[in-house]
Amino acid sequence: MAEAKKKRGEEASTSGGGGGGIGGRGESVVTDCGRQKSTCGYCKSGARTSISHGLWPQSLTVDDYQALIDRGWRRSGCYLYKPDMEKTCCPSYTIRLKTSEFVPSKEQVRVSKRMQRFLDGTLDVKKTNNGESCNIATESPVVDGGGKDETDQFMHFFSEQINNSVQVCVKSGEFPSDIQLPKASIKRVVPAKRNLQADNSEELIFSCNIAFQISATLRRFKKDFHTESSELSPTTIAEILASHSKQTAEACGLSVRACYGHINFYSFTKQSDLIDPRRSVISKPAPTTNISNERPLKRSCGARESQRHKFEIRLKQSSFDYEEYSLYKKYQLTVHNDVPDDVTESSYKRFLVDTPLTYIPPNDNNAAVPPCGFGSFHQQYLVDGKLIAVGVVDILPKCLSSKYLFWDPDFAFLSLGKFSALQEIKWVNESQLRCPSLQYYYLGYYIHSCSKMRYKAAYRPSELLCPFRYQWVPYDISKPFLDRKKYVILSDYATSQKGESLLLNVLDNHMEDQENEATNDVLVNEDEIAEFDSDFSDDESDESDSETNGADVSNVLIGVRANVHRRFKDLRHAFDQSQRKFVESQIQRYVRAVGTELSEKMVYSLA
């Protein structure tokens, strides 16, 4: 009887205490999926060149998931994966930002101001023939005291339009997708040169030479990598981009044409009521009659009383919401050109609703938990009660981890991808008052070899996770080495004398990078959808014994049966020699993937 009581006491001491986390937050129970190979959503190679390690958690504490993402793991629904950085085709580096040190770029400031102008009613949104909003917005300049500010607004707007056209060409295959192309910059044409290439009825106002820069970039790429891609001349590139900008320009009372590699914008003298050639800015149209007596709506997020639109941000626990799903489907069909049959409720739930994270509710007596608690959430953005965007995030002990964003294509002119990132950064800063451990904003994976992912580095000063030592290395130190090689042990350069001396040079030479963030504004974490849509399959045949040998598995916590856990050293006797060798090799592989500390906290399910 005494022995039985002793045995039950030992089992009790090893049950429920594996992944307890801070303050008794439950336990993590995981099944190891091993190595997985899939097609890649970034380089589009077509072959199963994307290689990762996978886990299926039955449950997962926020503390253990925080430790996992600090070792390069991410989740897609309830599935956890970690890229095999040395072997995968597109190495994915975890990227984060310490929000208290965040310095917004000029473009990020413009995004905030544009949203404010929209809420104030001073951002003029053009209408389509059927009266619905389209993705064209022009800044309504102030007539009195006008001049430079209005001109800058116009040039910035059309620079963004051309950049969007470049991204369209990349998606359609007209431009290659595996290099980072330069960004457009519209310039004002001085009066002395305005008669060049202009008809008598037109006047040249603005011009852009982006076609020459793109052509030069393509030539260098072809030379460096010995590709067989056809060479596009500046003239051809300018004609392609001008054709994309024609409709937008005409909506603003301008004409656009390619001219010897330049993209030129002309005003019509017969439309001088819209364009003032002497100032080269859009003049403010006559005020429209106010057909509504509706009083200005007060913004629920500290808005001014003069605002015309009510703006709200709501944070809710992850759960299925049909309105959210409808917006997600519209986004996927319009922005990503998905097939309607593929955007189902079940696929949406698996990807963005299901979560293995154990929710930790707020506790008035516990300052270590934010008011919303810890877990998986959907952050809703509403204008006048209409849902325009949803950010899927995980709130963990040290960070807000951004997983995915989908938004209403009718509101693309608001750059909701950038705007939501700025709001999430702001949320972290505000939450530190209640939960001091919350200091970071995680943007998912940074993939230097994929130009569409480089925009994440524009949230400065960011850090990348070294894939070998799991130390955080400033992006400014990492970038020059990633320019040369896809896979880099970043901590080697961070701790070397060479790396330290590079920092000042990098800061001087690459400050313009914060202005070169992606303008396609598709999403914050596009890596998540690429992983989710891939066709995963087990592939252990390539895994050599040398990759799994060496890890100490004695203290790995093993799930024996429900709520009963034992250390592996106490279970060795339960296997014969051949079984023990196989099981040990599997557990060693698991330890190498999650690390010794986590393997002794999380419960490894033999199932």
Automatic annotation (TrEMBL):
EC assignment: 2.3.2.8
GO CC terms in record: cytoplasm
Record domain N-end rule aminoacyl transferase C-terminal: where: 323-466
GO terms, molecular function: arginyl-tRNA--protein transferase activity
Residue numbers spanned by region Disordered: 1-26
Enzyme kind, highest EC tier: transferase
SUPFAM superfamilies, sorted: Acyl-CoA N-acyltransferases (Nat)
Keyword Nucleotide-binding found: no
Record GO biological process: proteasomal protein catabolic process
Domain N-end aminoacyl transferase N-terminal: 38-108
Family: Belongs to the R-transferase family.
PANTHER family: ARGININE-TRNA-PROTEIN TRANSFERASE 1, ARGINYL-TRNA--PROTEIN TRANSFERASE 1
Protein name (record): Arginyl-tRNA--protein transferase
Organism, as annotated: Erythranthe guttata
Phylogenetic lineage: Eukaryota, Viridiplantae, Streptophyta, Embryophyta, Tracheophyta
